[in-house]
């Protein structure tokens, strides 16, 4: 029986409320049949008769903001685990033994769901996570209801729970700074997620589009200007100015079979032609002439 079947939690609670409870003798007999004969019907009866107790325990964890159906379902798994391990030879009722399994499964689920950063990895962390708020309220009530800051009550909390003061302060910081998934739906209809509301660090869409359009126009004009250069001039501009690893003037001269000075003269002539053709765009185009020319010639 699933607590979340069809999402009808109220119907589920009504159904388990009609299941008869077991007497101590009846419970013991069923437990023996399940343990000794592997009677699955007996095991099922033990589980269903105690489902209402799972709901009672699950309600203790409703303040953590998780769906009750999920908490109950986790508790039911703990109950089933307890039934498999229950020893009817011990003079205790099943629920007295099972409550520890039920709490363990619910608490593990709460810890997994609370944060993407792993919590409850130590016994002290688990104790603090589930007892911190209750202990703080108890201290406030003892002091005539006056609300205390965590700094002034950290020592008292640590003593009561048997943990270190540093562990108390760390857990408070973790709980106060709970992380949220960016995929969590927001709004009344849940049609949007948090990630859609996060401001981007880049330029606005209209600015980005304008920049792309300007770049496209500039690239077209530069290409047309290069096409009007002769073969040697274009080679020099492409290899000296536009290349990621520019050639030196000596390399250009060796490539064509003339001197470094002749290569420099051809470059100056090619630059002059480009400036004339590009006119107003010359200031917007980064020729990288200063840094690149100084480096390769050195």
Instruction: Summarize the biggest pleated sheet.
Output: 2 strands, antiparallel
* The number of domains: 3
- Provide the structure class: mainly alpha
Proportion of residues in extended strands: under 5%
Please identify, by name, the CATH architecture of the largest domain.
Up-down Bundle
Rough shape?
elongated
Output the radius of gyration.
38 Å
Q: What strand line-up does the widest sheet have? A: 1-2
Give the helix proportion (percent range).
55-70%
Number-wise, the strands total 2
* Residue runs with pLDDT of under 50 for 5 or more positions: 285-295
Q: Separation of termini?
A: 82 Å
Total helical segments? 14
Classify the fold: give the CATH topology of the largest domain.
Four Helix Bundle (Hemerythrin (Met), subunit A)
Task: Walk me through this protein's architecture.
By secondary structure, this protein is mostly helical. It has three domains: 1-114, Four Helix Bundle (Hemerythrin (Met), subunit A) (Up-down Bundle), CATH 1.20.120; 118-177; 205-297, Winged helix-like DNA-binding domain superfamily/Winged helix DNA-binding domain (Arc Repressor Mutant, subunit A). It has helices at 9-17, 24-37, 40-48, 51-58, 68-85, 94-114, 123-142, 150-161, 165-176, 205-227, 231-242, 249-256, 260-278, 289-297, and strands spanning 185-186, 192-193. Strand 1 (185-186) and strand 2 (192-193) form a beta hairpin. The longest helix is centred in the C-terminal third of the chain and has 23 residues, at 205-227. The radius of gyration is 38 Å and the shape is elongated. It starts with 8 loop residues before the first helix and ends with a helix.
């Amino acid at each position: 029986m699933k607590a979340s079947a069809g999402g009808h939690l109220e119907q589920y609670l009504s159904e388990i409320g009609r299941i008869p409870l077991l007497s101590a003798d009846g419970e013991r007999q069923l437990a023996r049949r399940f343990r000794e004969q592997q009677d699955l019907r007996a095991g099922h009866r033990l589980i269903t008769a105690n489902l209402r107790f799972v709901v009672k325990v699950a309600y203790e964890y409703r303040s953590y903001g998780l769906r009750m159906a999920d908490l109950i379902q986790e508790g039911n798994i703990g109950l089933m685990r307890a039934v498999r391990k229950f020893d009817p030879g011990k003079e205790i009722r099943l629920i007295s033994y099972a409550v520890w399994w039920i709490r363990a499964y619910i608490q593990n689920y709460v810890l997994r769901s609370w944060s993407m950063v792993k919590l409850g990895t130590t016994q002290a962390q688990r104790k603090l996570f589930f007892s911190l708020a209750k202990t703080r309220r108890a201290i406030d009530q003892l002091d005539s209801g006056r609300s205390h800051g965590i700094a002034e009550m950290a020592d008292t909390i640590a003593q009561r729970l048997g943990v270190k003061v540093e562990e108390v302060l760390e857990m408070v910081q973790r709980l106060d700074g709970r992380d949220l998934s960016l995929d969590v739906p927001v709004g009344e209809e849940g049609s949007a997620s948090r990630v859609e509301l996060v401001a981007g660090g880049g330029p606005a869409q209209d600015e980005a589009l304008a920049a792309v359009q300007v770049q496209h126009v500039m690239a077209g004009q530069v290409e047309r200007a290069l096409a009007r250069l002769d073969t040697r001039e274009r080679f020099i501009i492409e290899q000296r100015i536009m290349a990621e690893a520019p050639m030196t003037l000596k390399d250009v001269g060796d490539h064509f079979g003339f001197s470094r000075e002749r290569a420099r003269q051809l470059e100056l002539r090619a630059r002059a032609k480009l400036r004339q053709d590009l006119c107003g765009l010359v200031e917007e185009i980064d020729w990288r002439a200063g840094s690149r020319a100084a480096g390769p010639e050195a």
